[in-house]
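Re: [help] complex structure
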Amino acid sequence: MLFQSILIGLVAVFMVLDSRMLGRLNFERPLITCTIVGLIMGNVETGLLVGAQMEMITLGMMSIGASGVDMNIGAITGCALVITSGASIETALTIAVPMTLLDQLLTTVADIIRIQLCHMCDGYVEKSQYAMARRVHILFGPLVYSVFKFIPVFFAVYFGNDLINTIVNAVPEFIMSGVSLGANLISFFGFAMLLSTMINKKNAVFFFLGFVIAAYSGLGLTAIAVISIVVTVLLYQIKFGNSSSSLQAAGADIDELDELDDELDD
Amino acid sequence: MSKKGLEIQRNYPLNKKVKEFFWGGWCMQALWNYERQMNTAFMWGISKTIDRLYPDPEEDEKKKEAYRRSLEFFNITPQFGAFVLGLTAAMEEEYADNPETFDPKMINSVKVALMGPLSGIGDSLFQGTVRVIAMSIGISLAQQGSILGPILAMLISFGVSFPITWFGAKLGYLNGQKYLEQISKSNLMDKIMYGCSVAGLMVIGGMVASLVNITTPLAYGEALQLQVILDGIMPKLIPLALTGVMYFLVKKGVKPMVVIISCFIVGIILNYFGILAI
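Output below.
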């Protein structure tokens, strides 16, 4: 158990370093981290299901700069504890919320430390110790992040098992099913957050287009994603198709190619 | 004196320079701080360029100045950070070449001017569109118990992120300023934003309709089931309405943590009285 708790703690480190040192490759998302937790605990199936559930609920939550909330730490802890305690998948979310609160508290402490590190960096540059200034950024920064994610996850996973069992046994059934309804309500908050960053009066129709196609046809999200890309390319050609021929400068050509690549990659 | 550094910098292999900007971009948030955000990251990404440009100990004052310049406030979507690093490195080179005519203030003003627009596009491209599409596909596969879900989600994210960061760094360094003019002339920013919003919004619409199905068990006898009536009007009306309510809360600026906790309380109440169910 000690060994596994350490490994789960390291998953949390991997999670935070994704956005710190890999430019946010989305490896931090619950779908990925919970699957890894499942692999470590020898129960990939539960890991996948918890990951999908947590991902669905938090899909809309963006972290732009300092604002926003992420439940990634909560998802990792919740997934690990659901697997060790054998509780229902919805329990993961119930665990994730207090973990997120704890994480935010610790993050505030880490924020203060990082401001000091930033000043340290200035200091080394003033003293012409450039190699040290570099090291503060690439070594100390990630180290602070890692420590502050590792510790809460490690302790929660190592000591949380009995606590979870006690709580799950003590809480009446209607509360548990109410909590899982509540968890599903949260996902709509995520959708709304995502919407609010992109929608305006002119493009709102595309939101309804996606909704109507999915609602009436019952097609899955993969199908909707593919359709949306096709529609985008189509509209792009209609809207910008004529104007691009007039821009034959070398740079513009690269632009078009780049963008086509992006869309294909999507 | 300074020409020696310039020679070292110009003879240094291009791909190695691009590699520095690439990792500089990806490590943009390694020491994110509330005071100047990604300033140390910018310094880290461009430090090797500065070191090469001013190799002599007598030039330490110039070197220090360049380091100080790089430690100013900076914030950007990491993948686009590489482009700005490349562009700035080219400008630092230009300054080292013509220290009399080139105003070093230009360097930071270009940096500052790029932050806003590039972050706006970057966030809606990477977090709003790519992430949402990758994860949507991932979720639907994972729900069927397939490990391909998370793997595919990772591959899609990587497949978009990697080339944009790498070629962004290269283009920024080689032709950054010319490239910027082209971008503003061809309205590329608007085009990308348009594409992102169409694809992103359609997928979000699909998510609302297909990811979470919330129904109402409310009924008056066998004949009058509210859910059947609602489905007669349009399927998935309740999820659509819930999204509307939440959108209102987001626009009101209610704190995320408050909403999350209220959701649990409301969920327990609605479930207890049999008003909504999953």
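Chain B has two domains: 1-211, 214-272.
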